[in-house]
Design goal:
The complex is a heterodimer of chains A (468) and B (484).
Chain A (H helix, E strand, L loop, with lengths): L8 H11 L29 H13 L8 E2 L12 H7 L2 H4 L11 H18 L3 E2 L6 H15 L4 E4 L5 H10 L6 E4 L2 E2 L2 E2 L6 H4 L2 E8 L9 H7 L7 E7 L16 E5 L15 E5 L12 E5 L5 E5 L6 H4 L12 H37 L6 E2 L9 E5 L6 H10 L2 E2 L2 E3 L8 E5 L6 H32 L1
Parallel strand pairs in A: 1-15, 3-4, 3-7, 7-8, 8-9
Antiparallel strand pairs in A: 2-10, 5-6, 9-10, 11-12, 13-14, 14-17, 16-17
Helix pairs in contact in A: 3-11, 5-11, 6-7, 11-13, 12-13
Chain B lengths: L46 H12 L22 H7 L2 H4 L11 H18 L3 E3 L5 H18 L6 E5 L5 H8 L3 E5 L9 H7 L4 E7 L11 H10 L3 E6 L18 E4 L1 H4 L14 E3 L11 E4 L5 E4 L16 H37 L4 E2 L9 E4 L1 H5 L4 H10 L6 E2 L8 E4 L7 H20 L1 H5 L12 H6 L13
Parallel strand pairs in B: 2-3, 2-4, 4-5, 5-6
Antiparallel strand pairs in B: 1-7, 6-7, 8-9, 10-11, 11-13, 12-13
Helix pairs in contact in B: 2-10, 4-10, 5-6, 10-13
Classes of the chains: A alpha/beta (468), B alpha/beta (484).
């Protein structure tokens, strides 16, 4: 018997008497006999709490994680520092076990947290507005393109070839009913050829999607893109950004983006294998009535005191139904709260330092790795923030390097096999959690791994050549 | 209450960055043109000030550990602490989503086991855990249906929903590229079978049916509905928002439904975090299973686990990674804990409690359909409205008694609707206390309506002027950080 059901047998009998039936089964009499689940569900019986946790602990122990290994993997989620105070706030039941704040009078905590999140997002992106958050960075991007398809005439969307590949897959899935054709812009090394965003190319396009930094870590010329996108009927400029870069890098508002989307996780909550995440959605004021998702506002109560409430709900599905701006009713409130609390703890100075020190360590790591013979930056002309792509010697397999690095205690990055334009490499990220000593150890381990692979890889080849 | 932007002072720090003193020791190599010129102006505070700020905010919230939360159709039940321990295990919490399959065997095993068990509980062929919320699951299923019909060369453009449907159903239909057709409910609160038979046709793609429906009633003619929909060549979809009422009683695959979604915070008690995260697993029949999202966590013949990307008919990816994994861990712990009989107890006790409240309240309040209900009972505030007291007033007055109000003004087809879902979590004393509060408010509506109309009287803020907030939008704090 569950510890989460309180009725005793005596309670149940009393309640059945009140209802006027003699047995529980009578309450289910509307279910046709032929589809009743007789004989119980075909799964095992329940166990106690310690047994449940024991089983899950065994599964957790089968994983290698950023808790056991030093993590240099990125690609949209990062092993960032999560302050203890953030976890403490987010585990308060007042925040974690409440529902969507429909009744503002008893939801001021959640509503104010959303308002503060919206403000932080607006400030980081330098845009006018933010919503309460979306499922994740990828779905936020899809919603942005859907918004654009309603705001502009056209049948195409221009997309960077260096978009996070998972986000690109989400676009393929979610945009299918819109009939929009997804057209990839040409690439220039690991950057997007933004010169291709010509007036001609813009014809019939509802939006241009760029990512900053892009999936390969490279910084795009967003300013040039913004300058190319001018005029009242131009395609919407959608920037998918690394939120943790924005205390240091130019924000979307500064280069003329209409909408900024991104993943909130790098602002400071655990990776949790990719979810729960939280999508950021910020926009210029003119798109307010087209925005998807919840929005909180500051207003007044009947006594004239400050009070927060959900607002502009007439955009939403529970009122507009088939004419809503989105089908979304969930945001990722608890994650948005964590991003807000971490930002409040770091402050302007901490956010800037976290970005800057990561960038410096990443730059240093890239310099040291490229001193290893045969290892080079995949695009030496591209500037990067705190994540970069390297090209490995031709005979060295990225997966083999990752395996060797794991044996030495590292999650060394993401395999790029192939790199755009050919060759093989790795995508390596450095967060503010990484120490100089870990960078040092990484370089040593990496050098050994590459040398071992070259040696190991060369001999069979040599043998086979000799045989020929 | 002041915002974080008003209580801060530049120069305070609540968290130090590792080795921040080495700033500038080496260059970062980023050209000036890429660097931010105007600071973001983020608030600066010490740790204790931040903790106090958010703790003070938090206590302004109603939550499930404080008192009953009978929000009908949203289902707010107790969220076991055990699940929090599970999700916070470092092997889950600190897993990077791009790690290789050999490093994430435990996580994949968990996902596969959960998929398999959910499929058995649902009687469905296969499950995907990727959608991040119920509405996300709805949309994913409609995209699957779209692809299924396209593959069959059938042009079907319409989604049928009852007039009692959740708003997400027609909204998802629109974003799935379908038109919505609404069918009326009959005087028993169920789908009007004759109207349904007239509405379906060769252009019908999917009927989305909430079961039990949003009036808290099981569609007693479910087998007729399934036959009519299937005879027309359309698919039958279950909005599983209310599955907590029938878990262990009916397996949707036996109806048979072709597609469905669940909301894990409802049936499997995951915490809803003030509006999210949720999780919206979906399930499909054998014919629709090939269309489920990719990649799919799978078990290979040798017992290892992998991500199956080779799904040629799949709708593709709907989430950046594998869904809200941390929520799935919590839900799976709940499933393991309860097992076969435990899950059945949930529906039994939830239904028992709802009917108990119906009997306690049906003297003073009109019940939309006064017959045996499932997990929730829908009242109408029509009698009280005649006295000048609106349902919203009753909801606000309940706050003074310490309860979160029920869902109000939904379903749309019930005038002044009050939708009460006690869940299996509440004991009989709490149910009695809630019923007493509702009866007291009904008495006040007759004898002292002003006290109801001016409610709430005891909450952290008075009734909030929502119209005013929309007229003068203030969606971000616009002043510089700092006091005054």
């Amino acid at each position: 018997m569950s510890a989460f059901v309180q009725h005793t047998d005596a309670d149940r009998r009393a309640m059945l008497r009140t209802i006027g039936v003699s047995a529980l089964e009578e309450l289910f009499a509307d279910i046709p006999e032929s589809i009743r689940a007789k004989g119980g569900l075909p799964i095992e019986q329940g166990v106690t709490e310690p047994e449940t946790l024991g089983k899950l602990a065994k599964l957790a122990a089968k994983n290698v994680s950023a808790a056991s290994h030093v993590c240099f993997a990125g690609g949209g989620m990062y092993d960032v520092a999560v302050p203890a105070a953030t976890g403490a706030i987010a585990s308060r039941p007042e925040f974690s076990t409440s529902y969507t704040p429909y009744q503002a009078e008893v939801s001021q905590g959640t509503l104010q947290a959303i308002y503060e999140f919206q403000t932080i997002v607006a400030r980081l992106t330098a845009l006018d507005l933010s919503n309460a958050s979306m499922y994740d960075g990828g779905t936020a991007l899809a919603e942005a393109v859907i918004l654009a398809s309603g705001a502009r005439e056209g049948n195409r969307v221009l997309v960077t070839p260096h978009l996070n590949p998972h986000h690109r897959e989400i676009l393929n899935t979610m945009l299918e009913p819109t009939g929009l054709e997804i057209v990839e812009l040409p690439r220039s090394g690991l950057r997007t050829d933004v010169a291709a965003i010509t007036a001609d190319a813009q014809k019939g396009a509802v939006a241009v999607v760029l990512q900053q930094p892009n999936f390969y870590g490279a910084l795009e010329d967003m300013k040039a893109a913004g300058q190319a996108l001018q005029g009242a009927t131009k395609p919407l400029f959608i920037a998918s950004v690394d939120m943790s870069s924005l205390a240091m890098l130019e924000p979307p508002g500064a280069y003329g983006a209409d909408i900024a989307v991104g993943e909130a996780q790098p602002l400071g909550f655990p990776m949790s294998f990719g979810g729960p995440a939280a999508g950021v959605f910020a926009a210029k004021a003119e798109y307010l009535r087209r925005m998807p998702g919840r929005i909180a506002g500051m207003g007044k109560d009947v006594h004239g005191n400050r009070a927060f409430t959900l607002t502009f709900q007439t955009r939403e599905q529970h009122i507009r139904r088939s004419k809503a701006t989105s089908n979304i009713c969930t945001n990722q409130s608890l994650l948005a709260l964590m991003a807000t609390v971490t930002t409040a703890l770091l402050g302007e100075t901490g956010r800037r330092l976290a970005a800057k020190v990561s960038a410096e360590k990443a730059w240093s790591l890239s310099r040291r790795l490229t001193q290893i013979p045969g290892v080079e930056l995949a695009d030496p002309d591209a500037a990067f923030f705190r994540e970069f792509a390297i090209r490995l010697p031709r005979e060295v397999s990225p997966r083999a390097i990752l395996r060797k690095m794991r044996e030495r205690g590292f999650l060394a990055g993401i395999p790029l096999d192939p790199l755009p334009g050919g060759g093989r490499g790795l995508l390596i990220a450095v967060t503010e959690k990484r120490l100089w000593s870990e960078i040092e150890a990484y370089v040593t381990a990496f050098r050994a791994a590459v040398e071992a692979e070259r040696g190991g890889a060369r001999s069979p080849e040599t043998v086979s050549q000799a045989a020929r | 209450m002041d915002t974080i932007f008003e209580i801060c002072r530049p120069g305070r720090r609540g968290f130090r960055i590792p080795e921040e003193a080495t700033e500038g020791r080496e260059p970062h190599g980023i050209p000036n043109e890429f660097l931010r010129k105007k600071p973001a102006d983020l608030p600066e505070n010490a740790e204790l000030a931040v903790l106090r700020h958010y703790t003070r905010m938090s206590i302004l919230n109603h939550h499930i550990e404080r008192d009953m939360y009978p929000l009908g159709s949203c289902t707010m039940k107790y969220n076991p602490k055990m699940a929090e321990i599970a999700a916070a295990m470092p092997g889950f919490r600190d897993l990077h989503p791009w790690q290789s399959e050999e490093e994430i065997q435990g996580a994949l095993e968990l996902l596969v086991e959960f998929q398999e068990r959910l499929a058995k509980v649902l009687g469905m062929h296969a499950v995907s855990l990727q959608p991040a919320a119920g509405a996300h699951g709805e949309l994913t299923c409609l995209l699957m249906a779209r692809k299924y019909f396209a593959d069959r060369g059938e042009k079907r453009t319409k989604v049928i929903v009852p007039d009692s449907a959740h708003g997400t159903n027609p909204a998802s239909a629109t974003f799935g590229g379908f038109e919505t057709v609404e069918v009326p409910s009959n005087d028993r609160g169920e789908v009007d079978i004759d109207a349904l038979a007239k509405a379906v046709g060769p252009d019908s793609a999917v009927m989305m049916l909430t079961l039990p429906n949003t009036l808290g009633l099981f569609e007693s003619r479910i087998l007729d509905i399934a036959r009519i929909v299937h005879d027309a060549g359309a698919l039958l979809y279950m909005d599983g928002a209310n599955f907590n009422a029938i878990v262990g009683q009916v397996r949707p695959g036996d109806v048979p439904f072709d597609l469905l979604h669940l909301n894990l915070h409802k049936t499997f008690a995951t915490p809803h975090g003030g509006g999210g995260p949720g999780a919206g697993p979906i399930a499909a029949s054998a014919a629709l299973a090939p269309y489920l999202p990719a990649p799919m966590p799978s078990r290979s013949a040798n017992g290892t686990y992998f991500l199956d990307e080779a799904r040629p008919k799949s709708v593709g990816r709907v989430h950046s990674f594998l869904g809200n994994f941390g929520i799935l861990v919590r839900a799976y712990s709940y499933l393991l804990y309860h097992g076969a009989d435990g899950l059945r107890e949930i529906s039994e006790n939830a239904v028992l409690s709802a009917n108990y409240l119906r009997m306690k309240l049906h003297g003073e309040y009109e019940v939309a359909h006064d017959r045996i209900c499932m997990h929730e009972v829908v009242l109408s505030g029509r009698r009280q409205k005649a006295l000048g007291v609106r349902t919203m007033d009753i909801a606000k007055r309940l706050l003074d008694f310490g309860f979160h109000p029920p869902t109000v003004y939904f379903p749309l087809i019930v005038e002044e609707a009050i939708m009460i879902e006690p869940t299996e979590s509440e004991n009989i004393e709490t149910l009695d206390r809630f019923a007493d509060a509702m009866l007291e408010i009904a008495r006040e509506a007759r004898e002292n309506p002003q006290v109801v109309k001016n409610a709430p009287h005891t909450t952290p803020v008075g009734r909030v002027d929502e119209a005013g907030a929309a007229r003068n939008p203030n969606l971000c704090w616009s002043r510089a950080c700092g006091p005054g």
